[in-house]
Amino acid sequence: MLSVIIAAMALGHVVLYPQPPTFWPPVAVLSALVWLVVRCCSHAKRGYCSGKIRLHRLTHLSLVALRGVMLFAVVSSLGVYRLAALLEQQLPHSLDKKVVSVSFRIEALSSVSDERAQLTAVVEAANSPLASKPANSSGAQPQKPYSLVGQRVRLGWYFPPALNVGQRWRADVVLRRPRGLINPSGFDYGAWLIGQGYMATGYIKKQPEAVYLGQLRPSPLQQLREHLVSALRVVQHEPAHRFFTALLLGDRQSLTADDWQVLQATGTVHLMAISGLHVGLVATLGFLLAKYAVRLACSLTRSSAAGWYRAAPPVTAMALSYGYAALAGFSVPTQRALIAVLLVNVAWMLGWRCSRWALLALALLCVSIVEPLVWLQTGFWLSFAAVAFLLALYDGQVGRERHPRRQARVRNALTIAVKMQCLLTLGLCVPLWLLGLPASVLSPLANVVAVPLVALFFVPLLLVWIPVSFTDFSGIFLQGLAQGFNALWYALQYLAMSPQAMVWASGSAEIWWLWVAVVASIMLILPASIAMRCGACLLVALLIFGQKKPKDRFELVALDVGQGLAVALNQAQGTFLYDTGAAFSERFNAGSHIIAPYLRARGVTPLSVMVSHADVDHRGGANALFERFSPREVWFGQPFDGLPAGAVQCIAGSQWQKGEARFRVLWPPANHLRQSLVPQVLRRTNNHSCVVMVEYRNKRFLLPGDIEADVERILLARAEAGVLDLGPVDVLIAPHHGSKTSSSSAFLALLKPAHVIVSAGYKSRYGHPHADVMARYQAIDAQVWQTGLHGAITVRVDGDQLQVIAERLRQPKPWY
């Protein structure tokens, strides 16, 4: 078991290490040679090695350690090779954002609407299938040509025609290299794409129009999926439709952000999508059905079932779980659960008397081999942590029990379920907090009711409905099932409305807080009831008293929100958020998916929000943040829908103090929305942006929003007249994302910023930052940072010095 764990950790080491550890191959060879030499010495004849026994005793532990190092090095070498091969399949930089004419086959449809479809396609042909990769920076020769044929790509299709799995199309496609936004405590979308097997993303161009090449004959499984999707439309406008699609087909695209928030608040995320619980449930049902069917057949025929009796239940369990995973499209969670189911049933069928910990370690290794980047997924850590915690509570041997205590299990089922949910909730607090996620206080209550209903009622009945869906009773059966599920969902929504539903841990908690939490979790799994109670009391005390106040330190964080702007200024007294990023779609916006996780991970402190103006790339995430945090103060440059009561307009001359930081509004002028002093300037919405100067000790930070050169000239004139204190600044957020209409030479000459942060998307379609603007920044010797290239940029004040940290440089990864 130790060797298996070492091998699994070696694969995880390759993924989590900042750079590919290419030094492992020679270390592996050297370790093997040293081990062979020591092994030969230990087995030498007594005449040549008089201290044989002494040498064996002394080297026993060293041999064990050396074997572990050698295994770690060998598996790491294999992991490095596989990761390099996987990254080699990515779209090269030479084809990034290039238009390529391709013929492709639709493999899967993630989401389809009248406005947009998200699909997985396999490239069958391309007009330029070979693209040579350029030479690297060291001057090495170009690598071998790159072929698009056979690659899986994730494509968006705006205003699509009627689409089905198996269709073949030829179209012009704009391809992008897999890439995601990189933020502190953020989700690495680029790694997720690679882990899912996508070697490129992109969208289909409108002109020229795509050409339909025909429909491949769908497989029986695809026909079944399409039939079930069509049959589920009977309850399309009810909440049950979204969750039935997720539970039955593994499609979670229709779940909204509000749905995920309710599931997170009640601790029922694992229930409302195909997970290990459901795959294990299907396997258990298959095992029990086959077991009792064999017993019944043997009793009727009065024959012995010694041979095939032992094989039939696990084979049935594996077959049903495999079919369920196939119906779900072999999504990553189902693959992970299927591996565990296969291992457990094979062990039972072959009569292996191995411990559950050995099976868990073997499952960890198998999952790491199947999914190279699985160590970066939150669900991976939580699932294995939950199983390990339960095994620590209920340890035993895998195998057939000779004397099962059926009556005791039935009598204590409810007690065990309640106890398990409470202990599991407490035990997972630390992993959840370490991963930047909340712990649900309502999880025991919600799961005690929801787990039996979903696992033992709704999921089995959904499986029974599959054959019923081909009859005339399909609609009635499904509507009745939907009504029951809707009642459960409304109850979960009611529970989630409690303001104390989720408990977040501050990312700045003291080290003793973490260690006490770990000790408390360990005490929970000890057999002594007193220790378990003490562990629970320690965790509850930590929930109340364990938070540490943030350090009295000032930092500015320009978050990586793509083509948009969101800047957080953090102090012990609270966070001032300048702009909220863009809204990319109805289901994804910067407020709920980027800024909120960052604020939660840092620790919930008093929040103030300023939305510079009403452009969607600056206020797109505002409404989501207003719902989740209820900020104390809200300022705006232009009104927009969703502003909370009490929000005030930015007016030049306003100023306030928070801690040691002083905030001054420099623009726009009073009453600019009704009667403008300079109408030709304020005719453009960008020039309504709130311009804020922030001063902390002897450092100055300027946040100008999207102002253009006209406003810059007005500010310069006021500064020259002595009306406005503009002066040199230490950090400048590039006006209008580095557009050529801003950052005039005179404006930069006055500001003389030491650092300029450009918040723009990678290879922005607007051309931000413009080459002329970059030349102006270089002319004043400013250090330029780009969120599209460097990820989130953190500027900390350390005495009289500024410390600048770029996320992509702080923790570089091979796929960046």
Give the gist of this structure:
By secondary structure, the protein is α/β, with parallel strands linked by helices. 46% of the residues lie in helices and 16% in strands.
Task: Describe the secondary structure blueprint for this structure.
Layout lengths: L1 H15 L7 H19 L9 H37 L10 E14 L3 E11 L3 E2 L14 E2 L4 E7 L8 E10 L12 H7 L4 E5 L6 E5 L4 H12 L7 H11 L7 H10 L9 H26 L6 H20 L4 H19 L5 H15 L7 H16 L12 H6 L1 H15 L1 H6 L4 E2 L2 H26 L5 H23 L5 E2 L7 H14 L4 H17 L9 E4 L8 E5 L2 E5 L11 H13 L4 E5 L4 H4 L2 H8 L3 E4 L11 E2 L5 E4 L2 E7 L11 H4 L8 E6 L2 E5 L5 H12 L10 E3 L11 H7 L3 E4 L12 H9 L3 E4 H4 L2 E6 L2 E6 H4 L6
Parallel strand pairs: 5-7, 13-14, 14-15, 15-16, 20-21, 21-22, 22-23
Antiparallel strand pairs: 1-2, 1-6, 2-5, 3-4, 6-7, 6-8, 9-10, 11-12, 11-24, 12-13, 17-18, 18-19, 19-20, 24-25
Helix pairs in contact: 1-3, 1-11, 2-3, 6-17, 7-17, 8-9, 8-10, 8-16, 9-10, 10-11, 11-12, 14-16, 16-17, 18-19, 20-22
